[in-house]
Amino acid sequence: MLGIEDPWVWLAYLGSILVTLICLFYGWIRRNAADDELTPTDRLWALEEQQVEDALR
């Protein structure tokens, strides 16, 4: 079929398609699972980063 006679090659193609579908499904399920709350550490880092960028200008 399609010029590929080796069953292991077919298995590799099907496996890669299957893994791709699993990854897409997992990403779709988990797309909103992360919480986006800023911690005080994040705020401090952003402030320091802004100060460094301002100093370089």
UniProtKB/TrEMBL annotation:
InterPro entries: Symport_access
Keywords (A to Z) from UniProt: Membrane, Transmembrane, Transmembrane helix
Listed transmembrane segments: 12-29
Top-level taxon: Bacteria
Name this protein carries in UniProt: Uncharacterized protein
Organism: Marichromatium purpuratum 984
